[in-house]
Amino acid sequence: MTLPVALGPMLLSLMVVAPKPAADLTVGPGGHFATITAALAAAQPGDRVLVRAGTYREATLVVRTPRVTVQGEGWPVLDGQGAREVLVIAADDVTVRGLVATNTGVSNLEDRAGIRAKDVRNCVIEHNRLRDNLWGIYLQRSADCVVRDNDIEAHGERQTTSGNGIHLWYSPGARIERNHIRGHRDGIYFEFSQHGVTRDNVSERSQRYGLHFMFSDSCSYVHNTFRENTSGVAVMYSRGVVISGNRFERSWGSAAYGLLLKDISGGEISSNTFDRNSTGLFVEGSSRLEVRGNTFTQNGWAAKVLADADENRFTGNRFSGNAFDVTTNSRSANSTFDGNWWDAYAGYDLNKDGVGDTAFHPVRLFALVVEQHPAALLLLRSPLVAVLDAAERVLPVLTPETLVDHHPLMRPPR
Amino acid sequence: MITLDTIRKRFGVLDVLQDVSLALRPGAVTALVGPNGSGKTTLIKIVLGLTRADHGTLHVDGRVADEAGAYRKAIGYMPQAAHFPSNLRVGDVLDLVRRLRPGEATDDDLGRAFAMDEISDKFVGTLSGGTRQKVNAVIAFLFRPAVLILDEPTAGLDPLAAKVLKDKIRAVRHEGRSVLVTSHILAELESLADDVAFLCDGRMRFAGPVADLLRRTGERSLEDAIAGLMRSERASHRSASTVSAAIQMPPWRAPEPEGAA
Amino acid sequence: MNIVSLVLLAGLRDLSRNRWIVAYALCFLGIAEGLFWFGGTGPQVLLSLLNLVLLVLPLVALVFGTIHVYASREFVELLLAQPVPRRQLFAGLYLGLALPLAGAFVVGAGVPFVVHAHDGATLGGVAALLAAGVGLSLAFAAIATWIALRTDDRLKGVGIALGVWLASTVIYDGLVLGATAAFGDYPLERPLLALMLANPVDVARVLVLTQLDVSALMGYTGALFQHTFGTALGTGVAGATLVVWCVVPLALAGRRFLRRDF
């Protein structure tokens, strides 16, 4: 093959797809356009719309041209004036970056978002600031989008007048990275969105869940921090979920969970830290989960595993400073605990292999009492409770006999 | 100096003291004697205000003894057994008592005689019983009260220390103060006592000068006289119908102290 | 110097050299320091010490206190024979027992937290633990004094002290637990809260827990608890009740001291 023969068709195809070179359309003081609306109308595929600093109060902006980049310079403010959605991506391969989208206002009729991607592919939403919007970033039937490095904050007062920070609905293959979300109803929300990757985000002070996802198989959540969310994190009705290296912190409340798993089958919960939650990990109706290498510290209940959960394996986790390490609602337990480290373990290791020679029963009698009579919690840390638990350990008659760690570690793993 | 008038005290069903009256003369040593359980200790505790009488009056230095206890300025007390907090130094204990009674005239004679300076840095817990008893005596004689009440004062003291203490008692008597002493060693009391009060089963069987007692019982020593009284007491117990001649004596009363008139 | 402080000072001087008191302080010091040494963080050490405070502190205050009052009997009589009012003597004698007990605990349990100040124990938590320990020391020293003043038989007195200890640390909570299970169908919040306040050991426990995250757990079992444990009110009520638990036995012991025959 010779070079000219190959170059010919390539040049030809370039001419067809991009009849003229990409242009920069400048909006704002000293720019080509006074309004973003006008610039978007004039934009050709591949163009960049550069928005200069200033406040723009326009009708909802809709990007209809593919491969357009809307880029703010000096944080231009796009103000919804409390009346409308701010920006909608309605074409493939659009990038939005450097904008401040604010003030959509509250509506009971429509889900107004700061930035919405609707029925598109490959959008990139990055380095934006979203302030006081009903919904922050909303991916609606949009595949393979990237949402990263955004800073999203809302001050909604009630769940009903507040939407989610990052909301995915039928949007598979999304990458949600390094965003910081505060004060929305749910920080990050996935529904019917498979194969997503969510990593390095911080989601805190959500009115409901820091992360909430349902019917979204094969997603992974890595190295995120979920902190002080009213109800913690809820993961439901999905398969093949990987949740690894996250921090679940300080979710206190009667219905608050560091991480709630409901009807999850086949997944991995590894190397996470559950710190100071009323319930660290709540497992209901889930099966074949590998729970390993996690750290549970200073939670009320480190792990609540209901009897309808089965074939879950807890290995190599460390439990310390929790009011209750493990509790369940029945004497028959179908999950196994093996080779974890428990700070309450008082056994010995004569052959020095690092594994305790006597088994550890992580379910305390008092935990079962409290399960049936919540008011008994008032006796938390009472010397009586210590006496009861000690007696139960010597002579287990009430706690689940199957829920036993036969190989408790003598030292915390890692 | 101290006048007890018809003092009564019951502990439960037990009549410990029944209408006991006694007066201590100034410038006299009164020996309080009686068998074990006769009520001597209770009588002393009533004088000190440690125990309250059910009935009767107590005058000290002409004043009625009151609840606030200021009358105890007129009393120096040496309890039978000395128990001080064992981790205090001798100096701390003496200092504490001195500070509890500020403004009272002090008397360092006994402290000097028992060389308190040399042991003031020692912890009470390390002292021998005799040395502790010396500290006990020093505390009783630390001030110049009108009345001294000494409960078995020489118990545990070596002969030399006992003599020092007895000399001190005589010196105090010489100064016109009253002293009430109990002791098991009647011979020792004989050399000290001017008056004797014999208590038995809660009743004052005899109270008066030693000479009177000797004359009435026809004995030559206090020891014999008291022993005779106790024997006849016991005999009267064994045959309740027999009335003992030896104890049919009206209680002796001291003349009212001049200061109280 | 007045009589109260003179007698108190003598008590302090005596007990600060008492080997049991010193051992008691060293025991707390050793255990707290040991917990830090073996990798405990501030809040964990706090909770471990809480168990010790609830169990060991009443035992020591009751048994040591009773024995101490008996042992000082002759000395007290000597002091009573001096021209000082009983009321002031009693105040001095009680404080001379209670303050060294409380002081030994504060030094033993407090110093490690000062040394490991960076280990994450909140100031509120440490303060609540120390306050609870001091409150329990004062309360049980008063109860011990009362027992010893009421009971002349020393063996019986120490027996009663042990009984009070067992009752207040374990038996009482056992009855509460039993009642909770038996009457689980009825609204229990108010009676349970009253029952908690009726036992100084429970009051001390609640006082410390209100300063820790886990207190929220108790709040979830009812609106009243939430109100009590979720706010400064709970800490205030628990603290005030502990004060009552010092004052009432002290008043009873004081009355006994003023009236009794020695």
Please provide a written account of the structure.
The complex is a heterotrimer of chains A (414), B (261) and C (262). Chain A is mainly beta. Chain A has a domain at 231-414. Chain A is 10% helix and 38% strand. Chain A contains four helices and 38 strands. Chain A has a 25-stranded parallel beta sheet that branches. A 13-stranded parallel beta sheet of chain A has the order 3-6-9-12-15-18-21-24-27-29-32-35-38, with no helix packed on it. Chain B has a single domain (2-260), classed as 3-Layer(aba) Sandwich (Rossmann fold), CATH 3.40.50. Helices cover 34% and strands 23% of the residues of chain B. Chain B has helices spanning 40-48, 90-100, 109-113, 116-119, 129-140, 159-174, 186-192, 210-217, 222-238, and strands at 2-11, 14-24, 29-33, 55-60, 63-64, 75-78, 147-151, 178-182, 195-200, 203-209. In chain B, strand 1 and strand 2 form a beta hairpin. The longest helix of chain B has 17 residues, at 222-238. Chain C has one domain (3-259). The longest helix of chain C has 30 residues, at 42-71. The mean pLDDT of chain C is 88. The chains are: A mainly beta (414), B alpha/beta (261), C mainly alpha (262). Chains in contact: A-C, B-C.
What is the C-level CATH assignment of chain B? Alpha Beta
CATH fold title of chain B: Rossmann fold
Rg of chain A (CA only): 26 Å
Helix content of chain A: 10-25%
Q: How many H/I helical runs of chain B?
A: 9
CATH architecture heading of chain B? 3-Layer(aba) Sandwich
